[in-house]
Amino acid sequence: MADRVLVVDDEQSLRKVLAATLQREGYEVQVAADGEEALGALDRDGADVVVTDLVMPKMDGLSLLRKVVARHPDVPVIVVTAHGRVDSAVEAMKAGAFDFVTKPFEHTELKAIIAKAARQSDLNARNVVPDEGALRTEIVGKGQQMIELQQIIAKVADAPSTVLIQGESGTGKELVATALHEQSSRRERPFIKINCAAIPRELVEAELFGFEKGAFTGAVQSKPGRFELADGGTLFLDEIGEIPIEMQVKLLRAIQESEFERVGGVKTTRVEVRLIAATSRDLTREIAAGRFREDLFYRLNVVPVILPPLRERREDIPLLVEHFRQKYNARLKKSVEKIEDDALAALASYTWPGNIRELENVLERTILFAEGTNIRAADLPASLRQPRPADDSAPAAPGVPTTPGPLKEIVKEQVQAIERDLIVRGLEVTGNNVTRTAKLLKISRKSLQMKMKEFGLRGED
Ligand SMILES: Nc1ncnc2c1ncn2[C@@H]1O[C@H](COP(=O)(O)OP(=O)(O)OP(=O)(O)O)[C@@H](O)[C@H]1O
Ligand SMILES: [Mg+2]
User: Fold this and answer.
1) Which of 192, 217, 315, 419 could bridge across to 230 with cysteines, CB 3.0–4.6 Å?
2) Backbone dihedral region for residue 198 (phi beyond 0: left; psi -120 to 50: alpha; all else: beta)
3) At 397, is the pLDDT very low, low, confident or very high (cuts 50, 70, 90)?
4) Residue 139: CB within 6 Å of ligand 1?
5) Domains delineated in the chain
6) Which residue's alpha carbon is nearest to atom 15 within ligand 1?
């Protein structure tokens, strides 16, 4: 889609010339004669970039700029100042203008600035450039695996090496990629994401490397690809396992040599980009099946990060629950104060095939529908309240043998496995607190202690 530029000037001839020039460049152009008209058009139709004169009747350029910054903070504003009026240019920049040009200006100069602004606008719309002081990505978790993850992130964030993040759906791959970017010295530079699974095969190359005008039907203007947009910053190739095999050689070359050509272009473009890739597929299996190039895999897998499924780090569930309770209380304007132990127990023992995303969704929904200040197990979705399905990560719970055997012994074994399992979950939920676990399991503290001893479990009080 063409980028849309709103041209604001009280002089009709200037508006016309500028509009025609920009239309020839492939922009969609809207015009306004003063600030008031411009603001109306912007509120109504939006725009990707605003170019405005400063001296105008009704609302002048500076007031317009201030209103746009307040009401449409994602839309870059370019200010046109009169020759010799450096003070007004400075004032405009202070008020948040993206850039300024001085009259009389060269069209090439203005075009370059507009192109840059349109790119910025695109990034803003995709919310990829965190402002200074913007919320830092928080990776919640205190278990051993999460501590190690934090250490890896801190260690490699600022290195130029490629990181390959592997993990099931919803385990936090994108979150980790974002954290890597934010903790690097590139944080002020673009963080560009591309989801290889969401792009039709035949468009992957154009998306990655850009294209020249006329490269294919519909290419009415040339466009930079994600590699170019990410120049100096980070490029996140999500679902890299889905990238068509015929694209993999080109990608490998772009990574190895930091250069490529746009589709339909002859000029070689060089970029400096930090690459992070992620996949929920088992790439070794993809390699074996001939769907993923081994050389590309090794090139990407310089720093491997493997995110464990949530069911293998249940110790983090209480912390995550608390994190999402606060998040959705704020976001949904609710005041849930406590997730009761029985609800926590249910949350802690579910298998979470959709991992943290599923946990987050469950909490969002539960908090949204919560009527009081406390959430109990009965408030959770029914699927969570079912008995837990077989779980491969559960501590040694022997399956019921299919061949008949001594009934009493097998039953005893089974009961003990279930007991041990429930106690482990209880201790996890209560942070190893014996008294609270006993309450949760509705047994006496003494008998809990005996059982814990029997099963070799430890807790605190
Ligand atoms: N450790 C964590 N702490 C807090 N929030 C987390 C954590 N891990 C994941 N999340 C949240 O869970 C959700 C899913 O995470 P994310 O999108 O990063 O997962 P993903 O692995 O990319 O998933 P998919 O494979 O489905 O794309 C996000 O809302 C994210 O903020
Ligand atoms: Mg993802």
Assistant:
1) 192
2) alpha
3) very low
4) yes
5) 4-125 (3.40.50.2300), 144-307 (3.40.50.300), 311-393 (1.10.8.60), 394-461 (1.10.10.60)
6) 172
